[in-house]
Amino acid sequence: MPECTSTNSEAQALVVKNSATDGCTVITDKQTAGRGQRGNRWDTIPGENLTLSVIWQPRFLAPTDQFQLSQAVALGVLDWVRSLLGADAALRLKWPNDIYFGTQKLGGILIENTISGAKIQYSIVGIGINVNQREFEIPTATSLASITDRTYALPTLATRLLEYLERRYLMLRAGRLAMLRFDYLQALYRYQEHHTYEVAGRLVRGQIVGVDETGRLVVEIDNELRTFALQEIKYIN
Fold this sequence. Notes:
By secondary structure, the chain is of the alpha+beta class. Helix content is 28%, strand content 30%. The strands form 2 sheets. A 6-stranded antiparallel sheet has the order 1-2-6-5-4-3, sandwiched between helices. The protein has a 5-stranded antiparallel sheet with strand order 10-9-8-7-11, with no helix packed on it.
């Protein structure tokens, strides 16, 4: 569609109307109210970037397994970007699922799950990737075009992205959880590195050592392992 408030909202409307099939995708040239993690807006120049939402029905997953899906999606996007930039590109997944090139954000993912009983009935996987946009209000943002000095055909990119997402989703459905977890940790931004963070208004030095089963970030601070949910820890330098 040429324009919508948010592809996740449009996808949610399909779910509510019971019109969503497994793998159904909503894609737009322009979002007027795109959403990111932590309730942030996702602003993008119309027609220059990829903004889409995929609807899945992962009814093989319990609500406690939501982060397994998050890992699979993040890795699918990362695989796709690596196919464009090369296996040695400085690509990382910033917890929980932002896509980074070096220290700059290339894209983000927002997953919204509908839970009924003991199963996840629907997952709406919203993905925003900076592609051809070259000017940003935020200095920590970048795009594929900024990195490669090329212009990309968005429809072709979208098709390939969906293929890479499906590969990782099929790994999840097949129960290849150990491989997904290993790949996620190997790609994790600042994994096993010492950096400064802000926790409860205080600056601390810590080392990211993993992510627990529920998706909380595990950081070693003062020789103690601590877990953090969204908004409980802030990256400093």
